[in-house]
Amino acid sequence: ADAREELKPYKPDKVTFNFCEMCFWNCTEKVFVNDGKVRKLEGNDKSPLNFGKLCAKGQAGIKTLYDDNRLKTPLIRVGERGEGKWKKVSWEEAFEFAAKKFKEVIDKYGPETIGLEMHGTGEPGIHRLFEVLGGTTNFAIPAYSQCTGSRDVGFYYTFGAALGGHEPFDLSNSRYIIMLGRNETESLHVSELYHFSKAIGNKAKIVYVDPRYTHTAAKADKYLQIKPGTDAAFVLALINVMVTEDLINHDFVDKYTTGYDKLKPHIAKYTPQWAQEQTGIKAEEIIQIAREISSFAPNCIIVPPRRSTRYGDDTQFARAIAIANVLLGNWFQPGGFFKPNKIKVPNADMPDVEESKYAQLAQQKNAANAVLSLTNLPTTTQEIVGVLGLDNILWEAIRTQKPYPIKAMISYATNPLFHTGDSNKVKEAISKLDFYMVVDILPWEHTLYADIVFPESTYLEMYAALKSIGWKYPYVNFREPAVDTIYDTRDIWAIAHGIAKHMGLGEFFPFSDAKGVLYSSLNQMPKDQRDKLLKDGVISLGPIPEDADLSGDIDPKVAYQKMLDAYKKAPFNPYPIALGEDVSFNTGSGKIDIYSDSLAGNSFDPLPNYTPPNKPKKQNEFRLIFGRVAVHTHARTQDNEWLLEHYDDNNVWINPQDAKSINIKDGDKVVLVKGNLKSLYPVKAKVTDKIIQGTVFIVHGWGRFSPYTTRCYEKGVSDAEFCSNDTDPLSGAAAFLNSFVSIEKV
Amino acid sequence: MALFERPKKEKNYAMVIVQDRCVDCKACEVACKAMWEVPDGKLNYRTKVLDIDKVENSERKMIFMPILCNQCDNPPCVWVCPTGASYKRKSDGIVLVTPNMCIGCKACMEACPYDARYYNEELGAVDKCTFCLPRLESGLEPACVQTCVGGSRNFGDLNDPNSVVSKLLKEATNYWVLKPEDGTFPNDFYISNSAKVE
Description:
The complex is a heterodimer of chains A (746) and B (198).
Chain A: H1 3-6, E1 14-19, E2 28-34, E3 37-43, H2 56-59, H3 61-65, E4 75-77, E5 86-88, H4 91-109, E6 114-118, H5 123-132, E7 139-140, H6 142-159, E8 176-180, H7 190-201, E9 205-209, H8 215-218, E10 222-224, H9 231-244, H10 250-256, E11 257-258, H11 260-267, H12 272-279, H13 283-295, E12 301-303, H14 314-328, H15 357-365, H16 370-373, H17 379-388, H18 391-400, E13 408-412, H19 416-419, H20 423-431, E14 435-440, E15 452-455, E16 475-477, H21 492-502, H22 514-524, H23 527-536, E17 538-540, H24 556-569, E18 592-593, H25 597-601, E19 622-627, H26 641-644, E20 652-654, H27 656-661, E21 669-674, E22 677-678, E23 683-687, E24 695-699, H28 719-722, E25 726-727, E26 734-735, E27 740-745
Parallel strand pairs in A: 6-7, 6-13, 8-9, 8-12, 9-10, 11-18, 13-14, 14-15, 19-24, 20-23
Antiparallel strand pairs in A: 1-2, 2-3, 4-5, 4-15, 16-17, 19-27, 20-24, 21-22, 21-23, 21-27, 25-26
Chain B: E1 13-18, H1 27-36, E2 48-56, E3 59-67, H2 76-80, E4 86-88, E5 95-97, H3 107-111, E6 117-120, E7 125-128, H4 133-136, H5 143-147, E8 153-157, H6 164-171, E9 175-176, E10 188-191
Organism (chain B): Desulfurella amilsii
Protein name (chain B): Tetrathionate reductase subunit B
Domain 4Fe-4S ferredoxin-type (chain B): 13-41, 93-122
């Protein structure tokens, strides 16, 4: 059906419902199929998550489906680890092999010596297998320790709530937005970016602070090039001005917070003049910004950055941001932080995993949690870690085999050689394992080390359990296959089911695949809800009230009131404080803790202090920072043909002064060097004053060394090889940006 | 509001691009590529976003500029086409190419001031943006507009005073077309500092 020839009205043969798995925002989409092939992905316009929009990555999901480099059958290793030599096996053989290996490890060392890392919609499936095998809390979702962990812990200590992965920032109703290295336009989620763009349309004032001039800087009214690692100084100085000039929202602070009296003397030393020394940003700028944002309170926000795994003091940095926002009184207010809403969906009907003999064995053994015992985290932090895990420490526990050996490891849809601060340590860790199992879509680098590789189907070929995530507008997502599986692949529930069955644990997986799990939930849903989901591909609690009209035609106060009045009648409410509802906080005090007794009790700073960043030891060493481009997700899309057309290799950004001092010209081929380590493939130097002096920048996810992902093989340089492997003592999360490298011309 | 002296059409399809709101995310380019099966391996899209770096008053600026066919009311590509493969529809003004009439001489590509056409080897003909005419006829928006994450691209009929494009142009404090000096009378408009875009 070539529409170009005849220009007939465009009509897909078939439309199926899905949600995107190209990143973890999981936008709701429709899949257009013609002649038995997926031809077009389109945002589902009935979804309040993405308003019918998909980004480039989402649109390019087709090329992941049809990537001929995909894993096509189960594989068992025949060569050395790292060699990538496998034999193709049947699913029966693969299940038999994995079951035998897990049994061996459990019999020899105990069930607590199994580890798991996982990411994506299939998490509940693989996690259930892990629990049935007696897995303890030695598991991790890298999204915590490698990304949002410190931010979430900082907010937890302040508000008694983590912000979560679907951030509650009400950008579209905001009048003043400060972003500290939150590169909204390149590290993007569709609806967040759409709301950010709405703020631009509303002429909200946007201040962007980053050592690097990004696409987000291009959209800001004011860009401030800050010295890396000094963001906390900038925020503390903002607080200083707000307190000193009494710009705070007293109504809010009096009613909802504790500890403001202690903040006042504490913050006195963090003057704008002091911050100027640290950050390189002029004191007058800081004073002006503090005054400006306060004048828009509470309809303004200082955005806590997403990947806040930077310098090891990130939790206290997050605390500083949390407190600055508290002084603006923007919690559950238009333009500040909204309250997430969620639609409850019934769980699939499955037996309790604790009944499994291995789970009971693990309980009897009462083995200490290996990961947590390597840290010294306060109990409040441990509550969060218990849910999400510490991937960085998990690999360290495997590498050191302490406090007890972890002998089997599962990587589900995560590539540890690309998400850690020191990938060579992960290679060493893998060598300590008796059994390493990988489930993925493509033969990425870590699969080269796996003893068994299970090929998963892509999201366009399978069902998935229902997905309901808290966000401003509540919704439920639904996934059904658009086409039959192209290769001999299965969904994660089928893979977990097969392994469990071969271990005599089949009763814990009453459904043989994701479809069974999905329909078990669907069948328990109220009929009207289920019908709506099957008909529209999404459930939302609409209609959604319109955002405040901040175009300038009417008084913003009136505009906000009009919106709030509409929300009074809506079936959900993102602004309970603005609407005068009673709100309490899950902190010990029931209020927002500006001063944290809990931190004081654990010998941590109860009010945030400034820790200056580390310094290079030698001349001509540069701090290595990394980030994203709009057309790639982490380290998982670099083989995608359409996305490669937009970005197919990274380069090293270096300031002209630095380049001059080491005699590098724009376009020169260079490698990164750190001790004995040299990057594998030369990349181009990009000499630009968009990066601050003393710092080099690379895009994350490159330096690909799996020969089986042919489109990106031998391209770029990997941050995971050269970053720091430090840890924030308060969150346990990683700190990547404490590393210095030198640059050599090739 | 009389924008230009233009021929009367039943529908006057137009694109209004809120330039402030383009974030260079490339969603439009990939959506367009998927929709129209633009050949892989080359950057010969029907639409693209240009990055323009500049320094103004010693301040760094970066501007993102979505580009596509302007469906000109005075289309030089049509006038130079020796076979009549390139033509402009009277009813709505959309400029099209009939592939089997195109001999691939590329005169139209030379004539277009906007670099909006490319030669499609698989098709054996010059190819270009059609404002997604087959989608319009199915009640869908153009693929790039539908997916525009920044809400920068807007599409509609300028003859309809209630269309989003009419409203945007009416309310804009500042709008422009590309290369007005070429006298092409484009149907893509750019606006800036605009509010109220849904």
